[in-house]
From TrEMBL:
Lineage: Eukaryota, Fungi, Dikarya, Ascomycota, Pezizomycotina
Entry keyword set: Methyltransferase, S-adenosyl-L-methionine, Transferase
One annotated GO molecular function: S-adenosylmethionine-dependent methyltransferase activity
Name by which UniProt lists this protein: O-methyltransferase
Annotated InterPro entries: Cation-dep_OMT, SAM-dependent_MTases_sf, SAM_O-MeTrfase
Family: Belongs to the class I-like SAM-binding methyltransferase superfamily. Cation-dependent O-methyltransferase family.
Annotated GO biological process: methylation
Alphabetical list of Gene3D superfamilies matching this protein: Vaccinia Virus protein VP39
């Protein structure tokens, strides 16, 4: 697996961060606050990932995004969340940065929420429960929730390497190994499903923990 050694991953991430457009002070502030509030803050997208999403949303001129977008485009953002603690943190952040006029939190299991969404989205970021990815993306495509030039980004499709092989990451700590092994099984089905869906073009990038990009076939 690429950058399986945590020290090397940290060094490379730091180098990439230093050579990318600066993270906004607000994003840095949210990052620091979340790290202090949540034991599992490592699930959060890093500042470099946040910068990547801002970059893409800005480039695409996104007007409507599921989960992430940018100040520059003033996009409407819909975010889906199940966990009450995360919902409370999200609402606190929305209020703190006066984003209530364009960010909507939909509470509850994402599958039910996605099925009720209407309209189209320019950017969709899929990063919730890994055994839900297939269902989420299938609904997005079936219900045409992705705009004609839109982009779906799916994070963690390597499942720390377990999707590729359960032998691929000897450094994965034992306490999370069975969790990521189960995720890997689900994501293997997901990766195969999207690759074989004739409606879309797919590229699986060997960055971070594996990121799949999906767009409509032109
Ligand atoms: C990896 S974290 C998301 C990190 C976030 N996307 C970011 O970029 O910082 C996964 C989130 O999905 C939420 N989640 C897990 N299962 C879910 C479900 N079935 N429906 C909605 N949200 C879910 C978790 O509570 C958690 O907040």
């Amino acid at each position: 697996m690429i950058l399986a050694q945590p020290e090397m991953a940290a060094t490379v991430t730091q180098y990439c961060t230093e050579h990318s457009t600066d993270v906004s002070p607000e994003m840095k502030e949210v990052w620091d606050w979340t790290c202090g509030e949540f034991e599992d803050a490592d699930k959060m997208s890093s500042p470099l990932q946040g910068t990547t999403m801002k970059f893409l949303a800005s480039w695409a001129g996104a007007k409507r995004a599921w989960y992430e977008a940018t100040k520059q485009t003033q996009a409407e953002i819909i975010t889906l969340e199940l966990d009450p603690k995360m919902i409370a943190a999200t609402r606190t952040t929305i209020a703190k940065y006066n984003l209530g006029d364009r960010v909507t939190v939909i509470e509850g299991p994402a599958q039910q929420s996605v099925e009720k969404l209407t309209g189209m989205f320019d950017i969709i970021f899929v990063d919730a429960n890994k055994d839900g990815y297939l269902g989420y993306v299938k609904v997005v495509l079936d219900q045409k929730l992705l705009s004609p030039k839109g982009l779906i980004m799916c994070d963690n499709v390597f499942a720390r390497g377990m999707t590729i092989s359960t032998e691929s990451n000897p450094q994965l700590p034992d306490k999370v190994r069975s969790y990521w092994t189960e995720c890997g099984k689900a994501l293997q089905k997901f990766n195969t499903y999207v690759k074989n869906d004739p409606r879309v073009d797919v590229v699986l990038l060997p960055v971070y923990d594996g990121v799949t990009l999906i767009k409509w076939k032109q």
